[in-house]
Specification:
Structural class: alpha/beta
CATH topology: TIM Barrel
Distance between the termini: 10 Å
Number of strands: 11
CATH architecture: Alpha-Beta Barrel
Shape: globular
Helix content: 25-40%
Order of helices and strands: EHEEEHEHEHEHEHHEHHEHEHH
CATH superfamily: Metal-dependent hydrolases
CATH class: Alpha Beta
Radius of gyration: 19 Å
Strand order of the largest sheet: 1-5-6-7-8-9-10-11
Strand content: 15-25%
Length: 336
């Protein structure tokens, strides 16, 4: 059964010294400190260790073949978004990252699908780079953050980029970053364990309550990490909509439950019963395999959770490839 992993991250093996390039700090650099090993550094501070499977396609494909993954959808590591930087510098960095992703796809067109990154803090520049990603680089869409320097995804400053994605038929992958409340989460890896699920739910609710899906009915959005806290708290969200419509339904009077099926989420929830609940709640047509490869909080063997659940073949196939193909607007024949 065809297996498409919608949530994987990639970096170039090397890139220029961005502090020298732009004249100020805050950017991530990669310091190679051994064969197949590197450290992501931000202003001299250690951010994360990465290995060759983050930048070397052959290493990725070796892992894919071991776990029967036919296709990876590759996107940058969210810390590289750099929305805080000067827009022209973020555009320049985006172009570097996007050209690298496009080169990986070009080298292995049946094994990788690419998503670009754009300078979301400047909609005009972001739309130009989005168009380049789709029309020139052949990427399937873009990855964006769950907010843009504090602007939620219903913000008027974000809308032109989402509108352009709809018009171009580009897929949008929403990934949490710069998690809310992180000043209270300095210990226990809490930004990743607590902040990310909250961030993702916030981004979904913002798009629903802000009427984004009403204004852009053909927009194809997939949210990372199983939609975060949204599926588990939908009852509370709906109840709030019902009892305080003056606050919750101020801009959109449609019940949030009615939006199930209007957007996609990945399968990365680490729990079979939770995924079973999500299939019942949202339908398999809304859920696509996603592993967060190659990072430790991801699913080490992509698709193993789905395959362990003994679902009907039609449901498994939808989770493993059908939803991904629909979100990306790709034909199955391309990978057969």
């Amino acid at each position: 059964m065809l297996k498409i992993d919608t949530h994987t991250h990639v970096l170039p093996k090397n890139w220029p010294d961005l502090k020298d390039r732009y004249g100020y700090g805050g950017f991530v650099q990669l310091e190679h400190d051994g064969p197949g090993c590197a450290r992501m550094m931000q202003d001299g501070k250690h951010f994360r260790d990465v290995h060759a499977n983050c930048w070397e396609p052959r290493e990725r494909l070796k892992d894919c073949d071991e776990h029967d993954v036919d296709v990876q959808v590759i996107s940058t590591v969210p810390v590289m978004f750099s929305y805080w930087a000067r827009p022209k510098d973020t555009l320049d960095l985006s172009r570097l990252l996007n050209e690298h992703i496009a080169s990986v796809v070009e080298e292995h067109p049946r094994r990788f699908v690419g998503l670009g990154t754009v300078p979301m803090q400047d909609a005009e520049l972001a739309v130009v780079e989005l168009e380049r990603c789709v029309k020139e680089l052949g990427l399937a869409g873009i990855e964006i953050g769950s907010h843009i320097n504090g602007w939620n995804l219903d913000d008027a400053k974000v809308f032109p980029v989402l509108e352009a994605a709809q018009d171009l038929g580009a897929a949008v992958f929403v990934h949490p970053w710069e998690m809310l409340g992180r000043e209270r989460m300095s210990r226990y890896w809490l930004p990743w364990l607590v902040g990310m699920p909250a961030e993702t739910s916030l981004s979904i609710c913002s798009m629903i309550f802000g009427g984004v899906f009403e204004k852009l009915p053909r927009l194809r959005v997939l949210f990372a990490h199983g939609g975060g806290a949204f599926p588990a708290t939908l009852g509370r969200i709906e109840h709030g909509f019902t009892v305080r419509p003056d606050l919750v339904a101020a801009e959109n009077q449609i019940n949030p439950r009615d939006y199930l099926g209007r957007f996609y989420v990945d399968s990365l929830v680490h729990d079979a019963e939770m995924l079973r609940y999500m299939v019942k709640l949202m339908g398999a047509n809304s859920i696509a395999l996603g592993s967060d490869y190659p990072f430790p909080l991801g699913e080490r063997e992509p698709g193993k959770l789905i395959e362990s659940m003994q679902l009907e073949d039609s449901i498994s196939e939808r989770l493993l490839n059908g939803t991904a193909l629909e979100w990306l607007n790709l034909s199955r024949e391309r990978y057969q």
